[in-house]
Amino acid sequence: MSVSGNQAATGASARKLRVVMAQLDFLVGDIPGNTELILEAARRASSEHQADIVVFPELCLTGYPPEDLLLRPSLEVRVNEALERLQAEKLDPVIVIGAPLRHGALLYNAAVVIDGGEITGRYFKRFPPNYQVFDEKRYFAEGRDVLTLDVRGVPVGITVCEDLWKEGPVEDCAAAGARLILNLNASPYDIDKQARRKALLERKSRENLVSIVYVNLVGGQDELVFDGGSMVFDHSGVLTAEAPQFGEGLYPVDFLCEHHCQPVSQPLPEEPSLEANVYSALVTGVRDYVNKNGFKSVVLGLSGGIDSAVTLAVAVDALGKDRVRAVMMPFRYTSSMSLEDAEAEAVTLGVQYDVFSIEPMYDAFMESLAAPFEGTKPDTTEENLQARLRGVLLMSLSNKFGSLVLTTGNKSEMAVGYSTLYGDMAGGFDVLKDVPKTLVFRLAKYRNTLSEGEVIPERVITRPPSAELAPDQKDEDSLPGYDVLDQILNLYVERDFSADAIVAEGFDRVDVERVIRLVDVNEYKRRQAPIGVRITERGFGKDRRYPITNGWKSGK
């Protein structure tokens, strides 16, 4: 592979360059559809924005992450057909796309530059990541070369995603004469991610005296959500343009290139609150999972509690009220408050709402189990039966009407196993799977600020949480308070603190050891749980892969 393309023009006159950041949502595996999306975007960038360069996200041709689709024998044929299709259009702007390319016996995560129907540059990602949700080394070899090339008389360097986070690729592009670096990304969202990106881009652009165009993918893919937030930093480390997070679009940026390529500053979007950012991530994740998988609608159990209330609001905001069905399934322990609040939520949001009592089914099961249960005392078995009957009802509605069941468990509950296999865990997608309970409360309050009236009744937010599986039951009867529990879980699950280290932070040892034990022994449940939107750096899923069977002892 060539180290560089054509040598850049070095005339004294300044050149104007318009770069369009194509922040778009691609479907994993749909190479023909993604190819057409690239072509349509490039044509629009040309006709509407008079683009010189259009930059697309990492692996946009296949969607990200393609996972084991990269092992399919026909991958190379399909990618080559797509590249031929893109070349045949002979588009006016230069386009820079991401695609998996085979070179010799090895597969690379590549950026491809197409100018006037010809491929003028190929760049192989030098640092395929292999941590958290990333396992690119399973598929991709490491590139070694630098790519700088002349684009409309401007020396431009190309890098891909993780290359920005390591020492070498940006520095090598700058040393090769690049004044502008285009960085293609498929960087998934977590709560602090955009701030970390900005700090990195500020440092890299300033230290290397180059402007950097950072183009990121947007949309949901299984548990991952990509937030876009594409941006431009100038050679002095100043943020000059930023696309909104969670929104598709074509975002043009003008550069005046002489000694440096100076972007023309644009008004920056307002910094969203944490709650607004997380809520947008949940809406995006639900919308794309449902739509990309072809579900007509969703159904969920509405209990009158805060988790199902927030889940309902997210579903309606993602899909519209006509595609959401809520079902209240009361039992003898269900309070009148829960019945009233669930109905109020459904009516306010305008969804189809049904009430199906599980009492007759419960009685029938208990009659059948009377003989084997004779001489025993009621315990969690009877409580779990209630949850499982509700799961059967929801899955029956799912089967009959083609609706995806949304489960409503939060991260705190999933961590300690406060959930029932084949009961409240029965479903296809858990909206709040990576949302700690304390954040659920904040999201409920935030969602109420988006409407004139309350979508989630105030007493749903203020009442003590309860599964209502037994008389006068409260979550905190069997768990530490959520304000304490979530802090312990953050330290243990997301930051890998030991029990001793958590105690040293000021937490009660009895609480710490109990919580850690609950986390460890409930791994088997989480393996059988539906996927859900990842919003933290360490979600339950691809991020955290603990053995179910193990002899590890907590402590040090």
From TrEMBL:
Purpose: Catalyzes the ATP-dependent amidation of deamido-NAD to form NAD. Uses L-glutamine as a nitrogen source.
NCBIfam families in UniProt: nadE (TIGR00552), PRK13981.1 (NF010588)
Binding of L-glutamine, residues: Y131, S187, K193
Metabolic or biological pathway, per its Swiss-Prot or TrEMBL entry: Cofactor biosynthesis; NAD(+) biosynthesis; NAD(+) from deamido-NAD(+) (L-Gln route): step 1/1
Gene name as annotated: nadE
Active site residues per record: E58 (proton acceptor), K125 (for glutaminase activity), C161 (nucleophile)
Tree of life domain: Bacteria
SUPFAM superfamilies per record: Adenine nucleotide alpha hydrolases-like, Carbon-nitrogen hydrolase
Protein name: Glutamine-dependent NAD(+) synthetase
Family statement drawn from the similarity comment of this UniProt entry: Belongs to the NAD synthetase family.
GO MF term set: ATP binding; glutaminase activity; NAD+ synthase (glutamine-hydrolyzing) activity; NAD+ synthase activity
